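ENTRY TYPE: paired fold submission
RECORD: A
CONTENT: sequence, then C-alpha cells
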Amino acid sequence: MTDLPPDLPRLRTLETWLALTLDQVRRKIAAAEKREQERQTGIEHRPPPPDWLLEVGLNRDSPPVQVHVGGCWNAGKRHRGISRDEALRALTDGVKACGACRPDTELGFLEG
C-alpha cells in the first residue's frame, strides 16, 4: 500500500488535491469523448466522393492536367468533382486520362 501521511491536515490536503486532479481528468475525458463523437458524426455525414475528378493546374489560368475516376489515389491535391458529361468533354478536349484509374476506359471513351 502507498505510504500516506499520518496526520489529518496532510491527509485532507492530499484528498483535496486528488479531488481536483480527478475533476481535471474527468473534464479531459469528456472533451475527448466529445471530439470522438464529432469525428464519428463527420464520418457518418460525409458526402459521397464524386464519380469523376478533374485535376487542375497550379493556378486558375492553367489548363486541366488529368481526368480521374472519383477516389483515385493518383488525383493529387488540386482537383474538383465533375459530372460524367464534363469528364467526357474534358477527354474530348484533349485533357489526359489518368494512367492509374483509366477514366477513359470507365467512360467508354474511344479516341479519334
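RECORD: B
CONTENT: sequence, then C-alpha cells
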Amino acid sequence: MSFGPGAEPLFTYGTLQLPEVQLDTFGRLIPGEDDVLHGYRLEWTEIDDDRVVRVSGSDSHPILRRTDDPRDRVFGRVLALTADELDAADEYEVALYRRVSVTLASGMRAWVYVGH
C-alpha cells in the first residue's frame, strides 16, 4: 500500500477496523494493510461512552499496553487517513486512549492508540 503525501498512517487493532465504525467516523471505508506492533500486548477495557458503544456495538474494547517485550505483539491493519480523518479518529477514541507514534514490524512509522 502506498501512503501518498499528507497521509497519516494509523495502526488499528480493534473497532476502527469495523466497516460500521469507519463509515460513521470517516464517512467511507478505508483500505488497510496488515502489519504487526511488537512490544505491546492487547487487553480489554470497558467503554461508557454511549455513542462509541452504539457505533461499535460493544462496551468492551481492546486497548494496548506497552510491555517493551519483543515477544509481545499485536496484529492489526494500517489505514491511510487524511488529517481530518485522524482528527475524527481522535474524537472517536475515548479518554482511556492516547495517540502515540510507533514503528511497526514493516519499518513503517504510524500512529496508534494505546492505554494511558
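NOTES ON RECORD B: Residues 32 and 79 are 5 Å apart (CA to CA). The radius of gyration is 13 Å.
STATUS: closed
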